[in-house]
Amino acid sequence: MRIAGFEPLTLIDYPNHLATIVFTPGCALRCPYCHNPELITAVPGSRSEFFTVNHEDEFFDFLKTRLGLLEGVVITGGEPTLHLDLLDFIHRVKDLGFLVKLDTNGIFPDKVKTILATGLVDYWAMDIKHSPEKYPLASGVKIPIERFRQSVKLLMNSGVPYEFRTTVVPSIHESEDFLEIGKWIAGAQNYYLQAFRPIKIADTTLIDRIGEKSLDLKAIRKSMLPYINSIDIRE
Ligand code: SF4
Predict the structure, then answer these.
(1) By the 8 A CB rule, do 15 and 3 touch?
(2) How far is residue 110's CA from residue 133's CA, in Å, rounded to a whole number?
């Protein structure tokens, strides 16, 4: 599988586990606040360095040196489920005895279903970009919301540990939107409200649009508790 790069150690991306994190190139969404703009525009066959240099062998050489030291591998993007050989990659990681966490935006429910059926992913994280009605405001593209609804349903019915999370962006989100998100994913296992960080983003005009706007994450959390028991804030 094409790997754009990896970070040897992350203490925050896999809850309760020491892990390494792998970045895959390419994504069909265009979230204005995306922190990996160089990854999302990379497409197979393009001249992007992410498709001319593959770091997979380098990654597995590294991973073998971390046996017994690290517990897991986080696969993130871009959007990992874009890659047809994602399952082969996951198999290789599992064969070495590591846990796997998979990050997805849920755009390909069929892929989510196929991967869930293998039982190879130990922990899933899916982005909930916005309320169903306003999804394109945060995803940057018009894609039928049914796709994301299906992925949500699949994860909630899977019996596998998972989290949903939303990056909260003033000017894209309003407090009331989170009531709609709460109703949508009511009963979810874990939900995280992630504070937006104004660093290296895809749409640099967003900073001006945010201006002085802010959102109170603690108040949003409280408003969602009738729908979801476990909600945490990632600052
Ligand atoms: S889904 Fe993730 S990788 Fe894709 S554009 Fe949005 S933030 Fe970036």
Answers:
(1) no
(2) 22
